[in-house]
Design brief:
mainly alpha; 9 helices; 62% helix
Length: 161
């Protein structure tokens, strides 16, 4: 790894702040009884029909579970620097979905955000973490990559490499 000290510090900073973002969201979902994605998804505007599918009585509990524990797992993965390539990819996809869900074209969430809002910025930061192999910078990905189990199962290497 040829990153300078300043770049390593920036990578760790981005990884930990994104971890906090996901863990804070999870704290309002996992630990709050009866929290559901239905309230959020029923207020979508531009792509309402696409997101309404996830608010049906059959899909809402599944979607809620995936969002709650997805936020928690992404946050923990980024915090510990373990399987960052996977969690950051899922996190970036989730941020783009939220960007679409907040859209009232051409504004995002409110008239202060014209086309671009923080969801796209977060997605960009998460992609940066993937490119920079952020789990190898003061994270557990470097340790996991050298485990005998991972060496014996080469299909696991892309998860931590």
């Amino acid at each position: 790894m040829n990153n300078s000290t300043a770049e390593k510090s920036l990578i760790v900073y981005f990884r930990l702040t994104m971890a906090w973002t996901f863990l804070y969201a999870a704290s309002h979902q996992v630990f709050v009884p009866d929290w559901s994605v239905v309230g959020f998804l029923q207020h979508t505007k531009t792509f309402h029909d696409v997101f309404a599918v996830f608010t049906t009585p059959t899909m809402a509990p599944i979607t809620t579970f995936l969002v709650e524990y997805g936020h928690l797992l992404i946050g923990l993965s980024l915090l510990f620097g373990l399987v960052v390539r996977v969690s950051a990819a899922f996190g970036a996809a989730l941020m783009i979905i939220y960007w679409f869900a907040h859209m009232d074209w051409p504004f995002i969430e409110n008239t202060n955000n014209f086309i671009v809002d923080y969801h796209l910025v977060y997605a960009g930061v998460l992609v940066y973490l993937i490119v920079k192999r952020a789990g190898h910078v003061f994270g557990l990905d470097a340790w996991a990559q050298n485990l005998d189990f991972v060496r014996r199962h080469p299909g696991l290497k892309p998860l931590v490499a």
